[in-house]
Amino acid sequence: MAQSRRSPPRLAIVKNTEQLTPNMLRVTFSGDELLGFPTDAASANIKFLLPHANQDNEAYRASLQGVGAKPVKRTYTVVDYRENSNELDIDFALHADSGPATLFALNAQPGDTVAIAGPSSAKLVDVTADWFLIAGDMTALPAIEANLKQLPADSAGYVVIEVQEPADQRDFKLPEAIHIQWLINPEPRSGKSNLAEVIKSLPWPEGTPYVWIAGEVSTVRTLREYFAKTKQLAPQHRYTSGYWQIGQDEDAFQLVKRQIID
Question: Phi and psi at residue 20, in whole multiples of 5°?
Answer without folding.
Answer: -70, -45
